[in-house]
């Protein structure tokens, strides 16, 4: 087997949007992580907040958000699931298991290149490594060794040079190794196993055996959830739509990775904004067709939040959406009617985001022979998708309300000249219960070659009722 490890090297920082530099994350008044500018001024994890502020007066602080970190790791695992069905979720990264030779996405080097490219597109700070055992891959990633070792490589010899700092030694084993001057994995491997077990505990021996592939590795594989949820906190409260859009853009980049990896789409999603006063504002988005294009999703959110002014400053934003399996195949070579309809639905989504859900209306069929009552106006999308206006073939969509009475000359109706009847009559006789009508409809053409829909009433009067395109 081959294992690919991805370690997020700045997980506590990743959950904050638009971090001002220098910036650090604290928990229980102790620094957990800090950015490069803070480290350049002598700050490091483990310092107290008081010491950090004394060394760097311009330091900006954020409180650690473990819930947001868990959400980010869930998104990373969902992304990894697109490469391997065997994903292990760790405290600050993921492991993926592959076969020895290849996988459906290619050889080991290609897999690492594709995963690396996706993580870079999402803007993660990470380390990555591949090795024949899970423990070795994790150690190499924690040691910032971007290696790709397969079973054909002399990986057991290369292990000896790895630093012990990346090993998860338990109890007093780490301090004992430092006291004895053991700095490399090879230093531990040279020691007799029985004595090592007595001195450092059986857990250390098991760790080395797993590292060398001498002990079965039992992992709990991650089960993907049928939804996406990502939360970003702000280092300081924001009140502008620009700052909100910046955070949403970061979430969308990760969201698209998950959608592509899972071969999924979304038909609707919710954006939740946490206020400084403890309030929670939610904006729900309903799409006319399932979508996974990041630019389209971002356009919808920008349209809805254009000029957004919250009642209270926002401290965090969360995007959540159920995922649905994609049923679409490969993209067509040429644009066809289906893609034209998809473009139209995308336009409707943008109009609803800008004007409001109730502002976009649609005509649907109604069972009535009277043309003025044969359609009903309702919200988009229509509840009954079977009612399509192309069922009104032979009737115009543009109707006059009310019908316009026409003059008659020498027995022929007139509209910008005498009309020539080309089709008809079509008798409509109905409505005895709520307004009876008796009409004979014709398609007529005037000297200007306009195609019109006219009818003759029971009294012999002529009326213009509609225009054909």
Which superfamily, in CATH terms, is the homologous superfamily of the domain at 2-16 and 65-152?
Reverse transcriptase/Diguanylate cyclase domain
- The end-to-end distance, rounded to whole angstroms, is 66 Å
Task: Note the beta-strand portion.
Answer: 25-35%
Low-confidence region ranges: 329-334, 385-391
**Helix segment tally:** 14
User: Biggest β-sheet: count, sense, barrel?
Assistant: 5 strands, antiparallel
Q: In the CATH scheme, what's the topology name of the domain at 2-16 and 65-152?
A: Alpha-Beta Plaits
CATH class of the domain at 2-16 and 65-152: Alpha Beta
Structural class: alpha+beta
Number of strands: 21
Helix content: 25-40%
| Average pLDDT rating | 83
Oligomer: single chain
Question: How would you describe the shape?
Answer: elongated
Rg value: 34 Å
The CATH architecture category of the domain at 2-16 and 65-152 equals 2-Layer Sandwich
Can you put this structure into words, describing what you see?
Helix 4 (66-81) runs parallel beside helix 12 (241-262) and helix 10 packs across helix 11 (202-212). This protein is of the alpha+beta class. Residues 329-334 and 385-391 have low confidence and may be disordered. The protein is built from 14 helices and 21 strands. Among the domains are: 2-16 and 65-152, Alpha-Beta Plaits (2-Layer Sandwich); 228-329, DNA polymerase, Y-family, little finger domain (Dna Ligase, domain 1, 2-Layer Sandwich); 394-467, no CATH class. The two termini are 66 Å apart.
């Amino acid at each position: 087997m081959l294992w690919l490890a991805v370690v997020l090297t700045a997980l506590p920082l990743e959950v904050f949007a638009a971090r001002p530099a220098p910036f650090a994350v604290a928990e229980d008044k102790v620094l957990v992580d800090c950015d490069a500018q803070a480290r350049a001024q002598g700050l490091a994890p483990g310092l107290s907040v008081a010491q950090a502020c004394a060394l760097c007066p311009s330091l900006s602080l954020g409180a650690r958000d473990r819930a947001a970190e868990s959400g980010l790791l869930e998104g990373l695992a969902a992304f990894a699931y697109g490469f391997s069905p065997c994903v292990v979720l760790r405290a600050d990264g993921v492991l993926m298991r592959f076969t020895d030779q290849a996988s459906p996405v290619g050889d080991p080097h290609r897999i690492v290149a594709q995963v690396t490219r996706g993580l870079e597109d999402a803007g993660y700070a990470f380390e990555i490594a591949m090795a024949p055992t899970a423990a070795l891959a994790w150690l190499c990633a924690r040691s910032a060794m971007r290696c790709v070792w397969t079973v054909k490589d002399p990986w057991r010899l290369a292990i000896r040079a790895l630093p012990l700092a990346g090993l998860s030694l338990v109890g007093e084993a780490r301090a004992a190794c430092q006291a004895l001057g053991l700095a490399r994995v090879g230093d531990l491997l040279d020691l007799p196993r029985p004595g090592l077990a007595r001195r450092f505990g059986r857990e250390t021996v098991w760790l080395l055996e797993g590292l060398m592939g001498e002990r079965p590795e039992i992992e709990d594989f991650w089960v993907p959830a049928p939804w996406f949820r990502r939360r970003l906190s702000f280092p300081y409260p924001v009140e502008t739509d620009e700052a909100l859009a910046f955070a949403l853009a970061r979430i969308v980049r990760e969201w698209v990775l998950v959608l592509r990896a899972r071969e999924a789409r979304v038909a609707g999603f919710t954006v939740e904004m946490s206020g400084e006063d403890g309030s929670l504002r939610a904006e729900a988005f309903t799409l006319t067709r399932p979508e996974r294009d990041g630019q389209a999703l971002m356009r919808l959110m920008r349209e809805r939040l254009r000029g957004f002014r919250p009642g209270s400053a926002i401290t965090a934003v969360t995007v959540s959406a159920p995922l649905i399996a994609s049923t679409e195949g490969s993209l067509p070579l040429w644009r066809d009617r289906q893609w034209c309809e998809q473009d139209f639905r995308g336009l409707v989504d943008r109009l609803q985001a800008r004007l409001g859900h109730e502002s976009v209306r649609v005509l649907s069929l109604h069972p009535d022979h009277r043309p003025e009552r044969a359609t009903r106006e309702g919200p988009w999308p229509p509840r009954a998708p079977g009612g399509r206006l192309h069922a009104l073939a032979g009737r115009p969509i543009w109707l006059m309300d009310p019908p316009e009475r026409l003059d008659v000359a020498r027995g022929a109706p007139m509209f910008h000249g005498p009309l020539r009847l080309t089709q008809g009559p079509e008798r409509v006789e109905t409505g005895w219960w709520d307004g009876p009508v008796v009409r004979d409809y014709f398609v007529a053409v005037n000297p200007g070659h306009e195609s019109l829909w006219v009818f003759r009433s029971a009294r012999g009067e002529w009326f213009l009722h509609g225009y054909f395109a």
